[in-house]
Amino acid sequence: MFSMLQRVLVHFSALARPPVRRVLLKQIYFTANEAAWLAAATGFALGAIVVVQLHDEYGQSRDAALRLLGSLSFVELSPILACLMMVARSSSAVAIELASMRISGEVNELKRMGLSIKSYLMLPRVLGITVAAMALTAVMALSSVLGGILFASGWDASYQIFALERMLRLDEVLVCILKAMSLGLAIGLVAVHAGFSVQAQASDVPKAASRAVLRGMLVLFLIDLAWAVIR
Question: Mind telling me which residue stretches traverse the membrane in this protein (predicted)?
Answer without folding.
Answer: 35-54, 66-88, 126-152, 173-192, 212-230
